[in-house]
Design a protein that fits this description.
Chain B: Its EC number is 4.2.1.33. The complex is a heterodimer. By secondary structure, chain A is an alpha/beta fold. Chain A contains 16 helices and 19 strands. Chain A has three domains: 159 residues, Aconitase, domain 3; 89 residues, 3-Layer(aba) Sandwich (Aconitase, Domain 2), CATH 3.40.1060; 177 residues, Aconitase, domain 3, CATH 3.30.499.10. Chain B is 32% helix and 18% strand. Classes of the chains: A alpha/beta, B alpha/beta. Chains A and B meet through helix 2, helix 3, helix 5, helix 10 and helix 11 of A and helix 3, helix 6 and helix 7 of B.
Chain lengths: 467, 193
């Protein structure tokens, strides 16, 4: 039998129909839904008189719009957001799908709730009307974002019309140095390959440094596969994966678990399987990094200086000029001298318990810089509860951070958590696009530890100085 | 979806690479539960600059965009495609597109053509001169026409057919309902999924 990659195996196990030109109907095991990209899809079903094909495999949770302030139960949501969230309430009820409403302690960012509740399991196909669906690839599940028309297509048919992507391997060899995290890995990979380097590919991340990561860290790595342009990011399941899944509310139990685990153990890339593209990075070469521009590929070690447009070639020269102007940065300035106004810790990239632990470790017994705005938005109500139990919430509050309720918050600023014009933020989120966190807001993407360090000094800071 | 066959219109050049969907339509326009009223959100922040190409005649009536590489990267928001179409855009030509955006175009009948960077650059130069900014696109012939010149483009046959006919993708898939049900019975029986 031909040697197959992990992606080949999952793909082969989900082809429900293949047309002559290779276009397939790919069967979908889990469909995650949130309030922003789904109302038109449900409306489409209603207009055509169609039902949800597999309500049991469809899970919804509002996250993008929901306020994260403690008073959110008593209003606090603007009219448009309220209508969109209520539309999801109604659609979940009308179509009989699993639902975690705003009032439920399990509510949170869809990509954190899915794994937490055991909906995401190895070998599955997982889609959601959200580009960061790549997160679930950490479990060895083929997971990717889709548009609203495709949301409707999956709701109606439980399949997607797909052509197979190419295979790309990203290997991170050896060990990471102290202070270097999953966020630094994933940003460094994008820095190396560019935001379009993964276009047309599904990436499998492998190597010792990836194996050494916790499930939380693996989710951070896969989460940003889309920022590198890839269709999806994957990591083969192992003992850590099984241990994370076991006992989760929707994970299989008893004999079903045994059967599932036996199958999961076949999910790895065979020796000699073909990859169309291979990128190898030494773990020891990765430094704590920060973005300087308005594209996630604008990555540099914190010890570097702001680049000049002349450092680039082709269309990137103009793009760098525009980025530097937007970011208000002067070439040659050490990145560690760039002063910030705000720190945001949260998002589907870095809103899990391990991320909060890493930030709290740096903040313990210290205070944020005077006048700096700092907030922590846990990824889910359960992450929040666990952080409170572990005493992390007190560390954040004592340091001067706002301790919020769960949601997407300032990652995309659809709710009131936004940057104002010119406000500069060290953010653990995933996108530094123009206007992403607020009109003319300036975003520097960093790891949770780096965000915490920046909160203490009021400037972009090398976390290793605080360890 | 809207079929696409042939189209002639003003082309506007937006050559910056990595033009993301947050810039195409910012988050404040994603709060609808229908697909209406999105034209005003398109390139909302860019329109604040009077020099922005789509603010200036003849490009203020453009229906074709000639873009840089990795156009439409970032968020999966289909609002970007709905908004562009409502603004009047019928086709986008670029050296490359982000995957989800490309799929969203296809589902709505917005023609997204990826062509070699040299061809796109040539078209981009032509689009920047009002005298040569009008171009034609013929999907049947897979051809872009400006004056006496033309450029061929590639498109897989299945995609081309869907666009030409404006077919409902869900209806097409439901023709395979029996196969999906068969697959489901087999797939569900192993207690894995």
């Amino acid at each position: 039998m031909t040697a197959r990659t992990l992606y080949d195996k999952i793909w082969d196990d989900h082809v429900a129909h293949e047309a002559e030109d290779g276009t397939c109907l790919l069967y979908i095991d889990r469909h995650l839904v949130h309030e922003v990209t789904s109302p038109q899809a449900f409306e489409g079903l209603r207009m055509a008189g169609r039902k949800v094909h597999a309500p049991d495999k469809t899970i919804a949770v509002p996250d993008h719009n929901v306020p994260t302030t403690l008073d959110r139960a008593n209003g606090g949501m603007n009219e448009e957001s309220r209508i969109q969230v209520e539309a999801l309430d109604t659609n979940a009820k009308d179509f009989g799908i699993h639902y975690y409403p705003v009032s439920d302690v399990r509510q949170g960012i869809v990509h954190i709730v899915g794994p937490e509740q055991g909906w995401t399991l190895p070998g599955m196909t997982v889609v959601c009307g959200d580009s960061h669906t790549a997160t679930h690839g950490a479990f060895g599940a083929l997971a990717h974002g889709i548009g609203t028309s495709e949301v409707e297509h999956v709701l109606a048919t439980q399949t997607l019309i797909q052509k197979k992507s190419k295979n790309m391997k990203v290997e991170i060899t050896g060990k990471l140095r102290p202070g270097v995290t999953a966020k630094d890995i994933t940003l460094s990979v994008i820095g190396e390959t560019g935001t379009a380097g993964g276009t047309g590919y599904v990436i499998e991340y492998c190597g010792e440094a990836i194996r050494d990561l916790s499930m939380e860290g693996r989710m951070t790595v896969c989460n940003m596969a889309i920022e590198g342009g890839a269709r999806a990011g994957l990591i083969a399941p192992d003992e850590k994966t099984y241990a994370y899944c076991k006992g989760r509310p929707h994970a299989p139990k008893g004999a079903a678990w045994e059967a599932a685990e036996a199958y999961w153990r076949t999910l790895f890339t065979d020796d000699g399987a073909h990859f169309d593209k291979v990128v190898t990075i030494k773990g020891e070469d990765i430094a704590p990094v920060v973005t300087w521009g308005t594209s996630p590929e604008d990555v540099l070690p914190i010890t570097a200086t702001v680049p000049a447009p002349e450092d680039f070639e082709g269309g990137k020269v103009e793009a760098a000029k525009r980025s530097l102007d937007y970011m208000g940065l002067t070439p040659g300035t050490p990145l560690s001298e760039v002063e910030i106004d705000t720190v945001f810790i949260g998002s589907c990239t870095n809103g899990r318990i391990e991320d909060l632990r890493a930030a709290a470790e740096i903040l313990k017994g210290k205070k944020v810089k005077d006048g700096l705005r700092a907030m922590v938005v846990p990824g889910s109500g359960l992450v929040r509860a666990q952080a409170e139990e572990e005493g992390l919430a007190d560390i954040f509050k004592d340091a001067g951070f706002e301790w919020r309720l769960a949601g997407c918050s300032m990652c995309l600023a659809m709710n009131p958590d936004q940057l104002s014009e010119g406000e500069r933020c060290a953010s653990t989120s995933n996108r530094n696009f123009e206007g992403r966190q607020g009109y003319k807001g300036r975003t520097h993407l960093v790891s949770p530890g780096m965000a915490a360090a920046a909160a203490l000094t009021g400037r972009l800071t090398d976390v290793r100085e605080m360890m | 979806m809207t079929p696409f066959t042939t189209h002639t219109g003003i082309a506007a050049a937006l050559p910056m690479p990595n033009l993301d969907t947050d810039v195409i339509i910012p988050k404040q326009f994603l709060k609808r539960i229908d697909r209406e009223g999105l034209a005003e959100g398109v390139f909302f922040d860019l329109f604040k600059d009077q020099e922005f190409v789509l603010n200036r005649p003849p490009w203020d009536t453009a229906s074709i965009l000639i873009c840089g590489e990795n156009f439409g990267c970032g968020s999966s928001r289909e609002y970007a495609v709905w908004g562009l179409m409502q603004w009047g855009i019928r086709a986008i030509i670029a050296p490359s597109f982000a995957g989800i955006f490309f799929g969203n175009c296809e589902k709505n009948g917005l023609l997204a053509v990826d062509m070699p960077a040299d061809d796109v650059e040539e078209l981009s130069w032509l689009a920047q001169d009002p005298a040569t900014a009008q171009i034609g696109i013929d999907l049947h012939q897979q051809r872009i026409i400006q004056g006496g010149s033309n450029w061929q483009f590639d498109i897989p046959a299945a995609r081309k057919a869907l666009l030409l006919e404006g077919k409902d993708h869900i209806a097409c898939t439901l023709e395979h309902e029996t196969e999906i049900a068969t697959f489901e019975r087999h797939h569900g029986s192993d207690a894995v999924h």
